[in-house]
Amino acid sequence: MLRKGLISSNVLLFIGALLFVIFMLYFEMHVLQLEGNNDKLASEVALIRAQLQANEKSSLRAPIIGGGAGGGPLIEIPDVDLKQRKDLVVIYNRVPKTGSTSFINVAYDLCRPNNYHVLHINVTGNMHVLSLANQARFAYNVSKWEAIKPALYHGHVAFVDFARFGISTHPVWINLIRRPLDRLVSYYYFLRYGDDFRPYLVRRKHGDKMTFDECVSKRQPDCHPDNMWLQVPFFCGHTAACWEPGNKWALDEAKRNLINHFLLVGVTEEMEDFIRMLEVTLPTFFQGASKHYLSSKKSHLRKTVQKAPPSSSTVKKIQESKVWQMEQELYDFALAQFHFMRKRTLGQSATNRSSQFTTERSQQFMYEKIRPK
Ligand SMILES: *[C@@H]1O[C@H](CO)[C@@H](O)[C@H](O)[C@H]1NC(C)=O
Ligand SMILES: *[C@@H]1O[C@H](CO)[C@@H](O)[C@H](O)[C@H]1NC(C)=O
Ligand SMILES: *[C@@H]1O[C@H](CO)[C@@H](O)[C@H](O)[C@H]1NC(C)=O
């Protein structure tokens, strides 16, 4: 009994050892196979990296490398070269007396080095609204005129919604707005004294020495608050209600269009940051613009001559008007949006006036969990 048991336990031991060896062999093979996979993976990663580097050669900056929030690995994205957008059309529907001339001169200076076209939209009779047929021609021509692209169009024309004309390629709209009372005062003196841009040109009200304060106290039409109703309709567009001073729907529509159809709306008072933002977002056109704007004398161009600031009682009187309040509401809305985007877009030098160089925050997005593998 004892011997029999001893033998069977030896046999069991032997079988156990054999199983262990087989298992070890299998395990070893598996590890070797994994290592093989690993080598393959490493060589594929190297290949992808080489491709990424080739793509990145002309790009702006290196993307972030880091751990993903979900714990998985993050895939580096090659920085997309925004300068390559050769089909871009930008429309700047400038509002009169917002400092637009200084800005557009930068665009003219850069069109040759940056290789794009600038076109002025000259609307007959200084009208800001086009006929329906003209809107259709304009929208069609702008979208289909390939030879002129990339192109920047500018002119005193209200917003045109290209989608209404069955055109699927939309231009990028940009604009600049100014504090409504400042704009009105500037326009008032501009008609009387002209500016330093074309000093010898005789303006409509040349010779009239009445100050803005006198005009307000005498209730003259030139300084009537309704004259401020211009930035709202420029964003609102080609609808009848847009051009009714004080129309509430027009203000709401202007805000909606500003958000839905305009890439960027800056303010005259912060032109430098507007140009910095354009430089990092639309480098096709604005690469080098900040430096150019600051180093050339463009930032001081076209100042209206003889501008006395309005008295506090004049300001108070104007601020009582519904039109001022609504125009100011649009301005404040645009300013808040501009500051919101600026904070998220520009790096340190946005607030450093002595720095001439545009800095951009590094890349803020990347891809992960890509399936199937
Ligand atoms: C627009 O065209 C008209 C007619 O050719 C011309 O007299 C006018 O000066 C132009 N306007 C501007 C702002 O260049
Ligand atoms: C757009 O208008 C310009 C000027 O009239 C013209 O030269 C050009 O051929 C037009 N382009 C298209 C695609 O219609
Ligand atoms: C602003 O920029 C200049 C030049 O780039 C630098 O020397 C200076 O230290 C900066 N100032 C601040 C407050 O960051």
Automatic annotation (TrEMBL):
Localization per Swiss-Prot or TrEMBL: Golgi apparatus membrane
Top-level taxon of origin: Eukaryota
A biological process term (GO) from this entry: heparan sulfate proteoglycan biosynthetic process
Chain ranges passing through the membrane: 7-27
Keyword terms, alphabetized: Disulfide bond, Glycoprotein, Golgi apparatus, Membrane, Signal-anchor, Transferase, Transmembrane, Transmembrane helix
Membrane topology classification: Single-pass type II membrane protein
Main location: Golgi
Single GO cellular component term: Golgi membrane
Any GO MF annotation of the entry: heparan sulfate 2-sulfotransferase activity
Subunit structure: Homotrimer.
Similarity field: Belongs to the sulfotransferase 3 family.
The protein, known as: Heparin sulfate O-sulfotransferase
Organism: Megalurothrips usitatus
